[in-house]
Amino acid sequence: MFRGANKVTLDSKSRLTIPTKYRETLYGDFSGKLVCTVDIQNPCLLLYPLAEWEDVELKLSRLSSMVPQERLFQQVILGNATECELDKNGRFLISPVLREHANLDKACMLVGQFNKFEIWHEARWQQQMQQGITSIQSGDFELTERLQDFSL
């Protein structure tokens, strides 16, 4: 389970270093093998341990390539998926296409989201968080049935 937001730096060779607290799990449980793809709802990337990504691929394989919407979804998600491997220093390379999608530069955020991470441009992440908090506090935020029953 991955949680928390971490400031990380994209180095001059387009490598991102995973914080130490996640490395043991990623090396031990997943052999350092990852898959990175685009997020279709936000200008960020999704980074999955390979075993978690294989579950996503299985779901994608169940979609029909004969239904245009399903084929397009497969093309965007699977077509942008890039295999990565952590090096001995906990770094992995982000391809130019993926960096462009998320507008990544030196300052990034690695955000734990249960079974995966999101990778954001730091300023865009801060903006997203401020917009989210403002929306929730404004009272214009529509609570779904599950959110109505949720408590902290």
Task: Provide the fold topology.
Elements: E1 2-9, E2 15-17, H1 20-28, E3 33-38, E4 45-49, H2 50-61, H3 68-79, E5 82-85, E6 91-93, H4 96-102, E7 107-114, E8 116-121, H5 122-138, H6 145-148
Antiparallel strand pairs: 1-7, 2-6, 3-4, 3-5, 4-8, 7-8
Give an overview of the whole structure.
About 40% of the residues lie in helices and about 30% in strands. The chain has helices at about 20-30, 50-60, 70-80, 95-100, 120-140, 145-150, and strands at about 1-10, 15, 35-40, 45-50, 80-85, 90-95, 105-115, 115-120. The strands form two sheets. A six-stranded antiparallel sheet has the order 1-7-8-4-3-5, sandwiched between helices. A two-stranded antiparallel ribbon has the order 2-6.
Observed structural traits:
40% helix; 152 residues; globular; alpha+beta; 6-stranded antiparallel β-sheet; two-stranded antiparallel ribbon
Summarize the model shown:
With 152 residues, the protein is α+β, with helices and mostly antiparallel strands. It is built from 6 helices and 8 strands. The protein has helices spanning 20-28, 50-61, 68-79, 96-102, 122-138, 145-148, and strands spanning 2-9, 15-17, 33-38, 45-49, 82-85, 91-93, 107-114, 116-121.
Number of strands: 8
Rg, please? 17 Å
How much beta, percentage-wise? 25-35%
- What is the chain-wise order of helices and strands? EEHEEHHEEHEEHH
- Poorly predicted tracts of residues: none
Number of alpha- plus pi-helical segments? 6
Shape: globular
Could you say which structural class the secondary elements and strand pairing correspond to? alpha+beta
Question: Helical amount among residues, as a percent range?
Answer: 40-55%
Distance between the termini: 19 Å
Could you tell me the mean pLDDT? 96
**What does the main sheet amount to?**
6 strands, antiparallel
Spatial strand arrangement across the major sheet: 1-7-8-4-3-5
